[in-house]
Design goal:
- The chain has 8 helices and 14 strands.
- The protein is of the alpha/beta class.
- Helix 1 (25-31) links the parallel strand 1 (15-19) and strand 2.
Length: 357
């Protein structure tokens, strides 16, 4: 998680809702810039408990059972909605195309509340689902609801977190904004798994089997400045059994593979790594770190449940970088408003209110 100065409170007048909230990755990102969460929804009971332990907000359950009229007013709607198959996507019926899907619940809330900004996340393959028709349906639906939509696939590896995790991020500004210019961030921050490892984790499962083999070596090289070049991606060096899914072994000078809520193999959910000459999975705290969660994050006692929750979560650093760009767009609109409204009594109040609904 990026440390934000206490003076950086650019969203202090903004309220947001956290849909499909998981354990609160979006919550951390937006709160770090001063925004206030006024509503959260998460259907998984155990994730609800983790959310409450860390954010002191008890999320509502199944969003499909919550009337949009009962949701508080908000400026930003955010959420990593599930990639559920669209029953009739591609029929070009706009809003109707989303019925029977969880995205429909986002759409109906948006249609009622008209938040200024939408901030959504999904798996990379969402871009290809149904030959791109599903993504087109989402974009067309939001466009029909009076939003300008932009999206891009970003990799957590570029944002200072040692995890190869590609996700699509969707940003939409309500057309009441005059300026809707938005540039997705494109950092190239270097990190390595070794830097976030616990010294003696009590819950990093060690794998001791006779069918472990190594077939690659990794020797870090120095660049012209004398610094070691780290590849900023997973470095596969060995395998367990036949090297199938969850059976590959990686070097700690590289990145972790994508954390997963499910998956099989001896290294399921976290992958396997050669650390201090031992082969082991990542501990829950290490999983928290490569998703950008702070050190004081309260982790579930159940290791499998902790792995599942972090595998389902979002990378906080990526969200924070995107939020910075959202703030830039907000500020551009506020600057334009200041130029357009002549000075008069009550001027500052009008400028403050414009664009925040």
């Amino acid at each position: 998680m990026i440390k934000i100065s206490e003076n950086q409170q650019e969203l202090k007048d903004y309220k947001f809702i956290d849909l499909f909230a998981g354990i609160g990755g979006f919550h951390y990102a937006l709160k770090s810039f001063g925004a206030e969460c006024v509503f959260a929804s998460e259907i998984d009971k155990k994730a609800q408990n983790t959310y409450y332990s860390n954010h002191n907000i008890n999320p509502y359950g199944d969003i499909t059972q919550i009337d949009e009229k009962d949701i508080p007013k908000h400026h930003i709607l955010c959420g990593g909605f599930p990639c559920q198959a669209f029953s009739i996507s591609g029929k070009q019926k706009g809003f109707e195309d989303t019925r029977g899907t969880l995205f429909f619940d986002i759409a109906r809330i948006v249609a009622f509340h008209k938040p200024k900004i939408l901030f959504l996340e999904n798996v990379k393959n969402f871009t290809k689902h149904d030959n791109g028709k599903t993504l087109k349906t989402v974009v067309d639906t939001l466009t029909g609801l009076d939003y300008t939509v932009q999206y891009k696939v970003l990799n957590t590896s570029k944002f200072g977190l040692p995890q190869n995790r590609e996700r699509i991020y969707i940003i939409a500004f309500h057309n009441s904004y005059t300026i809707k210019t938005f540039n997705f961030p494109s950092p190239n921050l270097i990190s390595k798994l070794e830097d976030i490892l616990e010294e003696n984790p009590l819950n990093g499962k060690i794998i001791d089997r006779k069918d472990i083999s190594f077939y690659k070596s990794f020797n870090p090289t120095q660049n012209i400045f004398g610094n070691i070049d780290f590849p900023n991606k997973p470095i596969q060096i060995g395998k367990v059994n036949k090297g199938g899914q969850g059976e590959r072994i990686y070097h700690p000078f590289g990145h972790a593979i994508t954390l997963s809520a499910y998956g099989g193999g001896v290294g399921s959910k976290t992958g396997l790594y050669k650390i201090n000459n031992k082969i082991r999975k990542l501990s829950p705290r290490e999983c928290a770190r490569i998703q950008g969660f702070p050190e004081d994050f309260i982790i579930p006692e159940s290791i499998p449940e902790a792995h599942k929750q972090f595998g389902n979560s979002v990378s906080i650093n990526v969200l924070q970088h995107i939020t910075k760009e959202i703030i830039n767009t907000i500020q551009l609109n506020e600057q334009r408003t200041e130029k357009r409204i002549p000075e008069r009594e009550g001027y500052s109040y009008q400028v403050q209110q414009l664009g925040k609904g």
